[in-house]
Every structure is written in structure tokens, then in C-alpha cells.
Amino acid sequence: MKDLLAKVRNQNLFSTGETVVVAVSGGADSVALLDILTRLDTERLKLIVAHLNHCLRGAESDGDERFVADLAARYHIPFLSIRVDVGSFAAAEGLSLEDAGRQARYAFFREVARRHGATSIALAHHMDDQAETVLIRLLRGSGGAGLSAMAAVGDNMLKRPLLKVTRAELERYLNERGLNWRTDSTNADTAILRNSIRHELIPLLKKYNPKVTERLAATAEILASDEELLEQLTDETFSRLARSEDESVRLGIASLLGERRGLRLRLYRHALCELRGDLMRIALTHLDAIDRLVASSRPNASLNLPDDLRVERSYDELRFTSVTKPIEQSWEMTISGEGSYPLPNGMTLSVQRLPRPADLVTGSEKIAYVSAEAAPFPWLVRPFAAGDRFTPLGLNGSQKVKELFINKKLPPHERSRVPLVFSEGDVIWVAGVRLAEKGRVKPAADAVLRLEILEITP
């Protein structure tokens, strides 16, 4: 047990006295994680247990929620949970259950962190999970970034303290500590790719190398280090060669041809990611097609990519843009107090004064609570415009609203539809996307204003 605690402590993932949201499903991994974090005495972490009920297994899911609530109570740790119909969410968004569940969980965990001033979200992924992820991405086709799999320190406060710990070590730890856990019945369903890899492929691979899990995890760690170096090179080269303007990214043909092919492909990826926010549905065939466009003897040509992305060559310049142009909207509305306000873009903003709820986590980005004292009326509501800035809740410095949209993977043609709510000239809410620090509800507040935006998507 001491060795396992040392593996976690020696990574120095947490600061002394830090507030940490611990994602606890009730399974063996997360139960072990919670217990380990409570035993990091020198760090004196302030823990919050967060649990999302996926509503996929009926009474079993409800039992998991009660189990985690009781577990948190035994440790005298605050407990927050939410119920999300992941099945309906997956069907509505065209996602797999696994992807829908992941999106719902991470959105909830980040909301809990924002509301409670947490600076880390602890996840229970371990070495076996890492090995499975490498194999999944290898089978689906992936480069160095994908095969790097999961990082101990990820984006948006995510921390994975158990990546150097195996599943077997965790189960030994739980048994030695006399701790119980819940078992998800769907974990045995080999129709699910990850389960098939866990129960069928990895046991087969262990016949060739008994330490295949460790080797796969080590490979991911090596690739992650290489990827960090390559991304730094790409960022520096992109900053030197690229120009971003008017919802487009431009690169000089001569400059591109002066770089090696591997770096050129990374520059194309970087340009597309900056424009859209992710690289979903962008494959090597698309990057190869862009590279042929650059090397072509034709001075003018174009290429259409998935999701309305377009690459155009015009003489000595390569331009990345979106086929679907934003529909410019120009309107303003004054909000004088409580009520329901139909907006000119077809949405409706509801404002209601309520006693301060015990929990400010709404479970929906379309609903928010703001302070009536910090954000006095009248308010101004208008569409997003280029150059708008705000201070996100929980942060000190300002951020471009456009950067928020990129991080949220909101396509350019949808951005001008998003209303911004202003009080005293400052943004208090990027409606349906992110709260601002300006409207923060303080613990002593007796009442709050509940905001809801309807029909946030086209």
C-alpha cells in the first residue's frame, strides 16, 4: 500500500490545500482513488465527490448513486450528483453511448469545479485503461498524438493520478483496506469495443508478452514526450508562417514547400483545428490532398473537406476557411428585470429571481445563476461580435469570446447567433456557453437570478 501511495504522491499533481473534484462512479478504480486522495496527509486536499447517474441501468444506476453518496458521507466529504438520460442524449446528438456518457460526465465535473473553485478534477484511469486506449486508437487508425493516449495532466484541470498503477494493484489495495465497490454489469459485454479488448485481445497478447499492458503504457508515455516536442515545433512554425483573419487561416505556398512533409501535415492540422476547434473526421487522406494542392503546378485550385471546411490555393497563398459563412446579426435588447424576453434571433431569455439554492450546479449550460447585486439591471443583450472579451467564471484575466467558441468547438456559422448578456458594460453570461466572473454568486447571497436561454442551437 505504501508503494501505491508513493506512486501517486511522487507525481506531484496537486498543490497543498488544493480543492479537487473527485469523479467517483462507485467502481473499484474510483473508490480506490478517493481513498488514496484522502490519505495524502501532507497535501491536505479539499475534496468534493462528484457522481453522474447515466440512467442506463435502471435500479443498478440508482444503487451506484446511493453507494457513492454513502461513501462520501463516511469520509465526511461534500457530495454532488446529477441524473442525465445518456441514452436520449446519445440518440439526439448521434453519438455512441460511450461518447455521450463521457461528454456528459466531463461537462458536469467541470461545472462542479467552476462552482466550487476547484482547480483539479481527479479521474481514476489507470495503466490498464491506458493500454486499452492505445489499442483502440491503433485499431481505428491514429498518429502519434492519438497513440499518446491519456496524460497524467490533461486539458481543463483533468488529473489522472493512477496511470502508473495497474488494475490488479488497485484491487489488492482495496482488499487490504477492506473497501467495497460496485460492479457495472455492462463491463462484461464484449459487444462494446473496450470490453472486447480488455477481455479478449489483451489476454491473447499476453501470450506473446506477459507485460504487454506495461509495454503499451510505456509506449504511450514515450510518444507523449515526442508529441510535446513536435507540437512545440509546430506552434513555433505556425506562429511564424500563418496569418489568421476574417474567420480564415492563410499560409504562404513557398514557405510551406520549404518545410519537411511531416511538418507541413502538422501545419495543416493546426490550421484546421484553429478554424473549427477539433479534427473530427479529418483523416490522413485529407491532409495528403491538401499537400498535393500545395505542390500542384496549378496556381488556382480548391478542396472541400468534411463539415463545410474548405482549402483554397490562390497563386502563392493557401487559405483555410469555412464554406458556411456566419449570418451577421445586428440587434440589441434591454432587459429591465424579471420576465420572459423573446429575442430577435428566435431564442427566448428567461430571468427569474429565486432564493439562493443550496447547489448552484444546474446540470445544463442553458441555465445559469447570477448575482443580482453584482449584475444590476438594466442588462443589454446582443449577438456576439468580433473582438468581444470577457472574464470566465473562476479566472482572473480576460479572454476573447472567439477563443471560448473555438475551445467549445462551436462552428463559425453558429457563433453570431449566441447572445451575450451585459451588465454595466461587462459580459455576465455568454448565453448557453459560459458564465462570467462579473455575475459570480457569493456564498452569503440570499437570492439569485436564474437565467435560461431556450433554442440555443439552430
Q: What is the arithmetic mean of pLDDT?
A: 89
Q: Count the helices. How many?
A: 15
Write down the CATH topology of the largest domain. Rossmann fold
- Give the CATH class of the largest domain: Alpha Beta
What Rg do the Cα atoms give? 24 Å
Keywords: ATP-binding, Cytoplasm, Ligase, Nucleotide-binding, tRNA processing
Pfam family, one: TilS_C
GO molecular function: ATP binding; tRNA(Ile)-lysidine synthase activity
EC number: 6.3.4.19
Describe this structure as you would to a colleague.
It holds the Pfam family TilS_C. This is tRNA(Ile)-lysidine synthase. ATP binds at residues 25-30. The mean pLDDT is 89. The protein folds into 3 domains: 2-216, Rossmann fold (3-Layer(aba) Sandwich); 246-322, Uridine Diphospho-n-acetylenolpyruvylglucosamine Reductase, domain 3 (2-Layer Sandwich); 333-454, Phenylalanyl-tRNA Synthetase, Chain B, domain 3, CATH 3.50.40. 39% of the residues lie in helices and 21% in strands. The longest helix has 30 residues, at 212-241. The radius of gyration is 24 Å and the shape is globular. Helix 10 (212-241) packs across helix 12 (261-276) and helix 12 crosses helix 13. It is built from 15 helices and 21 strands.
Structure characteristics:
458 residues; alpha+beta; Rossmann fold; Uridine Diphospho-n-acetylenolpyruvylglucosamine Reductase, domain 3; Phenylalanyl-tRNA Synthetase, Chain B, domain 3; 3 domains; five-stranded parallel β-sheet; 21 strands; 39% helix; 21% strand
